[in-house]
Design goal:
By secondary structure, this protein is mostly helical. It has a domain of about 70 residues: Orthogonal Bundle (Protocatechuate 4,5-dioxygenase, Chain A). About 55% of the residues lie in helices and about 0% in strands. The chain contains nine helices and no strands. It starts with 17 loop residues before the first helix and ends in a 16-residue tail after the last helix.
């Protein structure tokens, strides 16, 4: 198995590795199920019951129920699959991404229009630089 521990030192970033892909496989399959209207309707009717049909961890289920996209990503979710959840909720990618950054939708949009996050700041967790 490949050692991806170096990626753990990047602040504010979860790298979607093969390990993360395996961890989140069922979560991402659940997300893909939301492409079908009948599944979206079943999910919206009783989210917990629908989630319980999937072999995903309790932590993944709780992250979905809370719409904690950062936690979903930490538990193997891929943002392109997670997009099916916020689309089901009627939210845009921009709205969902703003919640992940702790910014308002307007602040997030302006940051992106200004070229994204600054490369200045902490670049290594363990080195504090």
């Amino acid at each position: 198995m490949v050692d991806n521990s170096a990626f753990d030192d990047i602040p504010g970033t979860t790298v979607f590795t093969a390990t993360k892909s395996r961890e989140g496989f069922q979560l991402n399959q659940f997300c893909m199920s939301l492409m079908k209207e009948e599944n979206r309707n079943r999910f919206k009717k009783d989210e917990r019951a629908y989630l319980d049909e999937w072999k995903i961890t309790e932590a993944q289920k709780q992250a979905v129920l809370k719409r904690d996209y950062n936690e979903m990503i930490a538990n193997g979710g891929n943002i392109y699959f997670l997009a099916k959840i916020f689309a089901t909720d009627g939210k845009s990618f921009q709205e969902a991404a703003s919640t992940m950054t702790g910014m308002s939708v307007e602040e997030y949009a302006q940051m992106m229009l200004n070229g994204g996050r600054s490369p200045d700041g902490v670049r290594s967790i363990k080195e504090g630089r």
